[in-house]
Specification:
mainly alpha, two-stranded antiparallel sheet, disordered C terminus
Length: 1232
């Protein structure tokens, strides 16, 4: 659209909204609208006349900077940033911009001579209503624009005052220097961001005006709540012109800093971030004011260096004073930042610095003796020594000339170089003395000091010694230290020195013999190029390199073992602190490798701590044991190094079964899940399918299935021979009853867990512990476990569930006679655990137990548990006195079928037959479970319908089948017969309803009548049904179903519920509805306007109004004539007349139709609307109720929705119509 069609209507609505500020949301909407048309205002290439409106808009937006309304402020600042990046703020009316006199009042929109703005409406295409004014010439537009810029100085001054006012009212700053919460920080950042953008685009006189205003405020005020804010405000002017800013602020700030320090500011020693003292506020205020211009000053590189030299003496004097006087954390932190910015910034990036360019050798030599503070401020220049590669052949060590990398000191004979080396040594000795001193003090009072000391280590250490050393403080000790060194064999000494308080993420090197054909080919080609075969010396070098590489790998392996021994020695010491022990445990867990067997001592270290009193140590120890057991399994079943790298386990029981894609194959596979497995049979064909069965849409060529284990022979033994000693250590520990008693004691500790802890269950589970030794630990565990099962305490039950979950989950690959033995032991406890012991506080524990057991598990592996829960489900009494008796069984049964997924298909019909008969249960909780079962079975019974379950056939048929064919099976009717049966029973239940006060006991009342929850669910379902896009052939039938309910239902409540569905369906599916159905929708709604019930008539009018908003214009005009004619022809007889009610209903229908037409255009005035309002609707203002009520309500809505644009909409009415409308709205001629 052309800009003039959008700009003027938006401006006409924006000006009154910004002037009145009646509603916050309206103001925000207007500001966003202005932001959308910003290019038409600031770019004369987009719209030449738009620029003259900018200043007036900016003046109106001054109140938009409001601390109490962050949303409005963010929208305002976004608009200011958008327009300020395209223009330069300057007063073009005079050669030199005068400073405006100070004023405290907000500006108002000046009167402009732009004349009447044009307006345009689509319905004027065929009419004569136009109000276009001829556009001014470019010269006239330029003159208007020039005159408007005369208000820029006043606006800039008002904007800066508004920003300062906002900053003054910020909340108090916290210890981290931020004022308020996240919203306040976001608001300050947005305001200062807009201010910075504006300052960059100010003309010279306007910039001086802003700089003086900010300096006057900063020099006459000190506010502890706005230190960060003044930092950002000064940053705005410093970013635009740091030279002027520093000249303005330096002397004043330096003088005040000196006064404050001499009077005791920052004299209280602190090493942690805390709320600043009131006595330090002025110092912080002035330090920030000086820091900001220095920040941008030094970024100017060469120009900044030349100008900075003017302040050399003052800066040195100031830094000496700051060095000696600042003791608080914030004080010396800001002092260090000032020092860094002034002399050190970019020192090693190759950029010239003050020290490099302006300090003479004589000054440096003098500084060596006097320790000039200026030189002390220079960042430490490291001397660049490095370790030579160790354990390598000299011929293979590359050498190259040094490259100039931007270091400012390169000549060792240079006095500056010698001085910096001496300085570095002094700094190292200082760090060492500080470390010794802190070690002799209590840990409670030295945490912050140690933190700062550790942070200085990387500054001292050369980057060529350690590529990265990161220290993180963990209370009074180090919890994490990551080392990535150039020489890993040096790590054992370092670990020992740091007492094992490190977490080495990659301390060892796993070496595998992996097939690399592409690398081998490249090596052969390289050999051919080098012709090593003809050069004995070169061949000998290659052989030596290979041998040396093998030797080096052995050194790395030895270093890893040394690391383990060193950390274990520290971890086993009696004096170790618990924090150190946690780090040692984590480090040792990281050092567990899968390419080499874990030593027995390494495993024993973790087994000893599985029963530790500290929960974190137990947690990492358990995970370490599981990792070791998993690695044993990997080393056993990974037949090649490549498999070990990729962790590809080749389970001897897992087999690929080739299948033919047929529909009955999926049905057979699902039905097979219900056939019990006989533990005594030795079946040698694949049987178990743990994952979700394939074939929902298409089959693969094969499927992974598992053989049943042998009845007598272990399927997985023997385990990795190199781990024999480790397994023996494990066996000795876990076959001791005391081990399990201690674990059970910790598992049963009181806590807030309401579910089983999977880490605990996994510790016991087969693939880590139980499967390694099968049933060997069971006898040691059984007495402890039986005691837990007998105890009904919540924590004891949780511990029992974790043990049983691990045992049952891990026994799936045992020999079947051992599995039968474990089930023979456990089956007698099923009734006690799940029926007698389960209480409200333990139900979720055993529910999660079922979820753990049945997750990705073939139900035939746990057949006794399946048989038990299915039997209990069939025996539920749905009308028992105690609801919980049924809830606990249904909760466990729900966990069973949800984890089974499609594998539950074989039980679906029986489950539905059992629950459908109890759908009228007395208990709401049980009926809710029945509803979940219905929904679940519908889901698993839904299957696509390709002719052949293959990917190719399915994709092809999706393209070629007619749209009426339901290839996805989405139009499922699985429960259709049951639902129709239930609907038929409603009438029977109604006839059987008990009379009087006993009615609530009737089946009808329990299921249907006055059931608020059921009503809400039904309404939600209907709305969602209308909101989901249906298949195209179902659009018509769905509408017909709604129409049938509206037309034929004897209940007015049903008609009232059905009418809004028409609107929802129309809004969401209008592209799918054909013209005939749209006409039918209008006819149905018009017929409902004449309904006997007032509520239905009003809902029909509301629905019709919504439909008309998206209907063709011709439909609106047709209905207008229809309703006007109906209103004119309707006659109301005397009240005693038998046709009185019918006449009232007919006229009310006409008035409702007219009101629906008016409400369908809430923000515009169509050309037919004035006559309809004043000539038709106004005549019925005093008709009987409900006609008069409807008229007044329509008039009130019209006034509310058109008040923002009434200055434009009123042009649609003539004087007589305005008078009639005023009478309609207020009862008096307001507009006359």
């Amino acid at each position: 659209m052309e800009p003039d069609l959008m700009l003027h209507p938006i401006l006409e609505r924006a000006v009154p909204s910004l002037e009145a500020l009646v509603e916050t949301q309206r103001t925000i909407a207007v500001i966003k609208g202005l932001n959308a048309i910003a290019p038409a205002i600031v770019s004369r290439d987009v719209y030449y006349p738009g620029a003259k409106h900018l200043v007036a808009i900016l003046q109106l937006l001054i109140p938009g900077i409001d601390l109490n309304d962050p949303g409005k402020t963010l929208c305002t600042t976004a608009f200011l940033v958008e327009i300020s990046q395209f223009i330069k703020f300057s007063d073009l009316t005079t050669g030199e911009e005068p400073h405006p006199p100070p004023r405290d009042t907000e500006p108002t929109l000046p009167v402009t001579n732009a004349g009447t703005l044009p307006s345009f409406s689509l319905d004027d295409v065929d009419g004569h209503y136009t109000d276009f004014e001829s556009r001014l010439s470019d010269e006239e537009e330029d003159a208007l624009l020039k005159d408007s810029t005369g208000n820029f100085p006043g606006w800039v001054a008002s904007f800066v005052r508004r920003v300062i006012q906002l900053l003054e009212n910020l909340p108090d700053e916290g210890p981290d220097g931020s004022a308020g919460g996240a919203s306040e920080i976001q608001l300050v950042d947005a305001v200062t961001g807009a201010c910075s953008q504006i300052c960059v685009h100010l003309s010279e006189p306007l910039y001086d005006l802003v700089l003086n205003m900010i300096f006057d405020y900063a020099s006459t005020n000190v506010r502890s709540n706005a230190v960060r804010a003044i930092h950002q405000l000064v940053e705005c002017v410093a970013n635009a012109d740091p030279v002027k800013t520093l000249a303005k602020f330096f002397s004043f700030c330096a003088r005040n800093i000196q006064v404050e320090l001499e009077n005791g500011a920052s004299s209280l020693r602190t090493t942690s971030v805390s709320s600043p003292l009131p006595s330090d506020a002025t110092l912080h205020w002035m330090t920030v004011d000086l820091y900001v211009p220095l920040l941008f000053y030094t970024s100017m590189i060469s120009q900044g260096l030349v100008q900075l030299l003017r302040y050399k003496d003052e800066l040195i004097s100031l830094f000496k004073l700051l060095h000696n006087k600042t003791y608080s954390k914030r004080g010396y932190s800001w002092s260090g930042k000032l020092l860094h910015l002034s002399f050190v910034r970019n020192a090693f990036s190759g950029i010239p610095t003050l020290f490099q360019q302006k300090i003479t050798p004589e000054e440096a030599a003098s500084a060596t003796e006097t320790t000039d503070i200026l030189c002390v401020a220079i960042r430490l220049v490291l001397d660049g020594y490095s370790f030579a590669p160790r354990n390598e052949i000299p011929e293979l060590i590359a050498s190259m000339d040094n490259i100039a990398s931007g270091f400012c000191l390169t000549d060792p004979e240079d006095p500056q170089y010698r001085y910096m080396t001496l300085l570095r040594d002094r700094f190292g000795r200082f760090l060492h003395k500080a470390s010794v001193s802190l070690r002799q003090q209590g840990a409670e009072n030295t945490v912050d000091a140690v933190d700062m000391l550790v942070c200085k280590f990387p500054r001292y250490a050369s980057s060529s010694v350690l590529r990265m050393v990161r220290f993180e403080l963990y209370g009074p000790i180090y919890s994490n230290m990551e080392i990535a060194g150039t020489e890993p064999t040096l790590s054992p000494a370092l670990i020992k020195s740091l007492l094992g308080c490190q977490h080495n993420e990659k301390p060892n090197y796993l070496v595998y013999d992996i097939s690399t054909p592409h690398v081998d080919k490249a090596v052969r080609e390289l050999r051919a190029i080098l012709s090593l075969g003809n050069d004995p010396e070169a061949t000998n070098l290659v052989v030596r390199a290979r041998e040396q590489r093998i030797s080096r790998l052995q050194l790395l392996n030895n270093a890893a073992q040394t690391n383990i021994s060193t950390i274990m020695e520290v971890g086993d010491s009696e004096w170790i602190h618990w924090r150190y022990e946690i780090v040692a445990t984590r480090a040792l867990r990281t050092l567990v490798r899968r390419d080499v067997p874990t030593s027995p001592d390494h495993l024993q270290y973790f087994l000893n701590r599985v029963c530790d009193d500290h929960p974190t140590i137990r947690y990492y120890s358990q995970r370490a044991v599981t990792k070791i057991a998993r690695n044993i399994k990997l080393r056993t079943f990974c037949t090649t190094p490549t498999d070990l790298v990729l962790m590809r386990i080749r389970n001897p029981l897992k087999m690929k079964t080739v299948i033919a894609p047929l529909h009955n194959l999926a049905a057979q596979a699902l039905a097979a899940y219900r056939k019990p497995f006989d533990y005594r049979q030795d079946i040698r064909t694949p049987l178990f399918l743990d994952q979700d069965p394939p074939g929902w849409v298409a089959f693969d060529d094969s499927v992974a299935m598992y053989l049943p284990p042998s009845p007598t022979k272990s399927a997985l033994a023997p385990w990795d021979s190199t781990s024999k000693e480790t397994l023996e250590t494990l066996r000795e520990t876990v076959t001791e009853p005391e081990f399990w008693e201690e674990i059970a004691e910790h598992y049963a500790e009181e806590n807030h867990e309401t579910t089983i802890t999977q880490d605990n269950a996994s510790f016991v589970k087969s693939i880590w512990l139980v499967q390694l030794l099968e049933d060997e630990p069971l006898e040691a565990l059984r007495p402890t476990l039986e005691k837990l099962i007998q105890n009904k305490d919540q924590n004891k039950q949780r511990a029992a569930a974790e043990f049983v979950a691990g045992i049952l989950g891990g026994s799936k690959h045992w020999a079947t006679n051992k599995q039968e033995g474990i089930w023979n032991w456990f089956k007698p406890y099923l009734k006690q655990i799940f029926i007698q012991n389960v209480k409200t506080d333990t139900l979720m524990i055993w529910t999660t137990f079922f979820e753990y057991i049945f997750y990705h598990t073939d139900p035939r592996r746990v057949q006794p548990l399946v048989d038990f829960i299915v039997t209990e489900f069939k025996n539920i009494d749905y009308n028992a006195e105690m609801t919980f008796d049924g809830v606990k069984v249904l909760s466990l049964f729900r966990a069973f079928y949800e984890e089974m997924g499609r594998k539950f298909d074989a039980w679906a019909e029986d489950t539905l037959a059992r629950t459908w008969a109890e759908i009228s249960s007395e208990h709401d909780d049980l009926r809710a479970y029945i509803g979940e079962i219905l929904a679940f079975t519908q889901k698993i019974k839904w299957t696509p319908r390709p002719t052949l379950p293959t990917t190719e056939v399915f994709v092809k048929e999706c393209r070629v089948v007619p749209k009426e064919f339901d290839i996805m099976g989405m139009r499922g009717v699985y429960h259709r017969e049951r639902v129709l049966e239930l609907v038929a029973r409603f009438e029977t239940w109604r006839d059987e309803r008990l009379p009087g006060v006993r009615a609530f006991q009737s089946t009808y009342d329990r299921c249907v009548h006055d059931n608020t929850e059921l009503s809400n669910r039904a309404s939600t379902l209907l709305v969602r049904m209308c909101g989901v896009t249906p298949p195209l052939p179902m659009v018509g039938p769905l509408l017909d179903g709604i129409f049938d309910a509206i037309r034929s239902s004897p209940s007015w409540r049903i008609r009232l519920k059905a009418l809004p569905l028409v609107q929802v369906f129309y809004f969401r599916q209008v592209p799918l509805i054909d013209e005939i159905k749209i006409v039918e929708i209008l006819e149905v709604l018009c017929s409902c306007l004449d309904d006997e019930v007032v509520e239905v008539r009003e809902m029909a009018a509301t629905t019709l109004s919504g439909i008309l908003r998206l209907s063709p214009r011709r439909s609106v005009l047709t209905l207008k004539d229809r309703f006007a004619r109906l209103a004119k022809n309707s006659h109301i007889p005397a009240r005693q007349d038998p046709n009185y009610n019918k006449a009232i209903r007919q006229r009310h229908a006409a008035i409702l139709g007219i009101c629906a037409l008016v409400d369908s255009y809430p923000y515009t005035v169509e050309k037919w609307m004035p006559a309809l309002l004043t000539n038709v609707l106004a005549e019925h203002t005093y008709d009987p109720i409900p006609i008069s009520t409807t008229v007044r309500k329509c008039a009130s809505n019209f006034k509310r929705t058109h008040q923002d644009t009434w200055h434009e909409d009123s042009k649609r009415f003539d004087e007589d119509q305005l008078a009639a409308l005023s009478t309609l709205l207020t009862g008096s001629s307001y507009y006359a």
